[in-house]
Amino acid sequence: MSSENNFSGKVALVTGGGSGIGRAVCQVLARDGARVSVCDLNVKSAEETVESLKNPGDHIALCMDVSQKEQVHDGLRITQEKLKGTPTLLVNCAGIVRPAPFLEMTEERFMQVINVNLKGTFLVSQAVCKAMLERNEAKGGAVVNIASITGRTGLANNGQYAASKGGVMAFTKTCAKELAQTGIRVNCLMPGPIRTPLLAFPQEIIDEFVLKRNPLGRCGEPEEVAEMAAFLLSEKSSYFVGSCIEVTGGHDM
Ligand SMILES: NC(=O)c1ccc[n+]([C@@H]2O[C@H](COP(=O)([O-])OP(=O)(O)OC[C@H]3O[C@@H](n4cnc5c(N)ncnc54)[C@H](O)[C@@H]3O)[C@@H](O)[C@H]2O)c1
């Protein structure tokens, strides 16, 4: 699958860009002309992503923990210096799961997931959107947050994960309302099961809990999410504001 977008001259920042959906997003954005700042907790995997991109020399890999405000601000500053521009395309993709039944969930495990998935989305969005506004580059700016279908359906043994994703959806709509008049559009995706390291469960678990509930009978590929993220970043989606779009293969309809 491919669709042409024109991102030439634009700087993109992608969190969680070292793996899975984030890596595929980086590949699509670079294919369509953006200079990409690939940010990840795991800088080695971010470097591997850069190597996989069209024109690797146009992009950078950065170590960034999205839950740490200072690291987010440092990463943005380095992006601006090295890519010679402010990111006007942002994809918040960094995310973790830490399964535990609700009655056994510790406060620490609960907060780990909230801090990365929800607080991280807040910290990076605020830093990047403020930079766009300060430099008068908000017009044409776009943010895509990667939520999850579980933000709508819930997910047994992953209460804090599902809550973080429901939070990302509400946060997306709030930012979208506050920023629409500035020219920055904010939208989010709700993927279903996508074949990435995050979903690395034994095949019998995938068969029982994923494929039986999926009309297509398969997991999605990271590229199938990435193409929709690129669409939401592009001018083709100029009337999409605060949308939460399912990319699920019909999972849990
Ligand atoms: N795979 C799925 O089935 C699925 C479904 C719905 C939503 N999602 C969401 O998509 C996003 C990407 O997931 P994926 O499946 O590609 O997972 P993945 O594990 O392949 O990639 C996640 C990346 O985020 C990085 N990361 C983790 N903590 C971080 C932090 N604190 N700061 C910066 N980077 C950090 C990891 O190092 C990794 O490179 C996540 O937000 C996830 O919740 C995934």
Notes on the protein architecture:
The chain is globular. Helix content is 43%, strand content 14%. The two termini are 24 Å apart. With 253 residues, it is an alpha/beta fold. The chain has one domain (11-247): NAD(P)-binding Rossmann-like Domain (Rossmann fold, 3-Layer(aba) Sandwich), CATH 3.40.50. It is built from 8 helices and 7 strands. The site of nicotinamide-adenine-dinucleotide has 30 residues, from helix 1 and helix 4.
N- and C-termini, Cα separation: 24 Å
Q: SSE order, as H and E?
A: EHEHEHEHEHHEHHE
CATH superfamily annotation:
NAD(P)-binding Rossmann-like Domain
CATH topology-level name: Rossmann fold
* Class computed from helices, strands and strand pairing: alpha/beta
Gyration radius, in Å: 17 Å
Q: How many E-type strands?
A: 7
Strand order of the largest sheet: 3-2-1-4-5-6-7
Major pleated sheet = 7 strands, parallel
SS element count, helices: 8
Mean of the pLDDT scores? 96
Task: List the bound ligands.
Answer: nicotinamide-adenine-dinucleotide
Q: Give unreliable regions as ranges.
A: none
> What is the highest CATH level, the class?
Alpha Beta
Report the helical percentage: 40-55%
Strand content: 5-15%
Q: Which CATH architecture is right?
A: 3-Layer(aba) Sandwich
